[in-house]
């Protein structure tokens, strides 16, 4: 049973402070007496129950969820400037994160094809805006990682002007999927990126990666790191963004993330 306590704010989507009868709101997620749920359109807050919350997340499943299966994917193009990106009206999700956060691995896991996105042990291999067309109807966009500059000098770029220009001017952007390594404590560079997106009202979902491990076999658990991160970013967000736990190794969170993306995409297509 979920008790709605207070409406925090709303625009396209709503975010509520809620109290759950379970020890934790989302199974295998950070436990807390109170947490913020992401309420999608078409859901009546008073009717939200625990079974409607996607496991390992704060996301409520709504009526727009559906058609989440990926049947085909193809690489379309790489762009070195936002204005060179595809100019059709298909909705897109932009994958962003610190170098070596597991961005390419997550993309390959979502589409269940190896090497669709380039993976490497060397951080910073993705240097362009890469568009992948899914089911001929929407895009996954692989953006350059931040935090390292291992590319050749000629290929290096000002990440701020390059990627931020994409966020601020891309009318088909449904949501940024900001990947955060849950196996380590919150990193300043991730917090800075999340705060910039919040200040500029860019829609985003936190995708916590590497939830199957803890660095060095010791330290805080992933759910503790996630809880700390969410507390630190609250100041810069009018409402709690949706978040979800994942592991490209075990596949944990894959289907739930695709369902979440489907309800955002279907609502975007119908608004």
UniProtKB/TrEMBL annotation:
<keyword id="KW-0460">Magnesium</keyword>
<keyword id="KW-0342">GTP-binding</keyword>
<feature type="domain" description="EngB-type G">
    <location>
        <begin position="89"/>
        <end position="267"/>
    </location>
</feature>
<protein>
    <submittedName>
        <fullName>OLC1v1019893C1</fullName>
    </submittedName>
</protein>
<dbReference type="InterPro" id="IPR019987">
    <property type="entry name" value="GTP-bd_ribosome_bio_YsxC"/>
</dbReference>
<dbReference type="InterPro" id="IPR006073">
    <property type="entry name" value="GTP-bd"/>
</dbReference>
<keyword id="KW-0479">Metal-binding</keyword>
<dbReference type="InterPro" id="IPR030393">
    <property type="entry name" value="G_ENGB_dom"/>
</dbReference>
<comment type="similarity">
    <text>Belongs to the TRAFAC class TrmE-Era-EngA-EngB-Septin-like GTPase superfamily. EngB GTPase family.</text>
</comment>
<dbReference type="GO" id="GO:0005525">
    <property type="term" value="F:GTP binding"/>
</dbReference>
<dbReference type="Pfam" id="PF01926">
    <property type="entry name" value="MMR_HSR1"/>
</dbReference>
<dbReference type="InterPro" id="IPR027417">
    <property type="entry name" value="P-loop_NTPase"/>
</dbReference>
<keyword id="KW-0547">Nucleotide-binding</keyword>
<dbReference type="GO" id="GO:0046872">
    <property type="term" value="F:metal ion binding"/>
</dbReference>
């Amino acid at each position: 049973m979920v008790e709605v306590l207070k409406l925090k704010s709303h625009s396209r989507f709503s975010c509520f402070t809620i109290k759950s009868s379970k020890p934790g709101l989302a199974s295998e997620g950070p436990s807390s007496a109170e947490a913020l749920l992401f309420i999608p359109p078409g859901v009546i807050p008073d009717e939200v129950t625990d079974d409607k919350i996607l496991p390992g997340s704060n996301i409520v499943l709504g009526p727009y969820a559906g058609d989440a299966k990926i049947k085909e994917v193809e690489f379309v193009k790489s762009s070195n400037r936002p204005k060179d990106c595809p100019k059709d009206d298909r909705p897109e999700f932009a994958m962003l994160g610190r170098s070596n956060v597991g961005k390419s691995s997550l993309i390959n896991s979502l589409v269940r094809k190896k090497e669709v996105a380039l993976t490497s042990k060397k951080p910073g291999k993705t240097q362009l805006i890469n568009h992948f067309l899914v089911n001929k109807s929407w895009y996954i966009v692989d953006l350059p990682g931040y935090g390292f500059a291992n590319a050749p000098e000629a290929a290096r770029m000002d990440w701020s002007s390059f990627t931020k220009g994409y966020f601020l001017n891309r009318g088909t952007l449904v949501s940024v999927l900001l990947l955060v390594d849950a196996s380590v404590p919150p990193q300043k560079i991730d917090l800075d990126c999340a705060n910039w997106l919040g200040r500029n009202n860019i829609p985003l979902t936190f995708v916590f990666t590497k939830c199957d491990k803890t660095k060095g076999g010791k330290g805080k658990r992933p759910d503790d790191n996630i809880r700390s991160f969410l507390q630190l970013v609250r100041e810069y967000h009018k409402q709690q963004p949706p978040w979800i736990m994942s592991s490209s190794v075990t596949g944990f969170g894959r289907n739930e993330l695709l369902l979440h993306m489907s309800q955002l995409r279907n609502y975007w297509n119908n608004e």
